[in-house]
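Subject — a protein and its fold
Encoding — discrete vocabulary of local shapes:
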Amino acid sequence: MKIRLLTLCSVALFWSSVPLFGFPPPGFGPPPSGPLPANQVQIVVKGGYRYIYSNGIPDHEAGQFSNQNNPNAIRPQRYQFRVPAHPKIARNTTPLSHSPFGVALNGVVFDPGTAEFWNRDRRSGWNYEALNGKINLGLDSSNAHVQPTGGYHYHGLPTGLISKLGKANEVTLIGVAADGFPIYSQYGYADANDAKSEIRKMKSSYQLKRGSRPNGPGGSYDGTFGADYEYVAEAGDLDECNGRFGVTPDYLEGTYHYYLTEDFPFVPRNYRGTPDNSFQRRGPGPGRQGPPGRGPGPPGFGPSGPPRDFGQQGQNQGRDGQRPGGGQTRDRNP
């Protein structure tokens, strides 16, 4: 079956110490003080990949940072993201492991994990969820807060971005995952293969487990921890990756795509394709973490740096003339 695969301006955090481009601009980097610059995103297409350069500043109003439950202030970042231009469905799914899942159209990362574990023990496996209401990590109305690096990031639906796009109740492309497949907001077609069917909120297929936790914090499964949930096939609209194959306004012939949902997992925790290795975070080792709201941040630019002309205020077009998420399509066999 032919799949209209994503060639939109896909993104991935790039860790390599080998320069991809030979033009790091002098003086590029967050200023030590002063007002935040405007949101900046730029795209480069090279060697079968799409790279997005971003300063990580949201293009919508953010909450007050720092605050009582998140002591970090927003600062410009130097992100370089990469994903395949023509993603393919993999033989097996890949779980997300405390790294950003993907990037929004505005260059802000989707990063659902937290640094908070039961009894401060990463090895326990009982990792607190940010959006369950059990702990307060100082999130704003866009379900985002700030890393110690100053990196603003989303734990769930980016309501500010969705509002800015003006498509709150539509099937709306809002970003791209590390494997190159598109990410949509919570709305999809009732019939995955019929663009004329009703538009409604997508429901994940994850449910709370029954009974009590066998170890660690004990007590009933109530959503405090990610491990409180389990995937139940066909319990909702989406698969274990919080996605499905189907048509969208951007892919009329269909593509695999992800959804952010109002219920767990909020942001997908598994990949249907193969995530680029550059997404892997070099965070603290087992048993090391910061205080509440201080999870390790995603990586920024390596020695390569962004393009020479990066840093022009309001710049968000790629060198192929495409905005993130506004790319071309191409039929390919998976």
Q: What stands out?
A: The helical segments are 159-165. DSSP finds one helix and 19 strands in the chain. The longest strand covers residues 251-259.
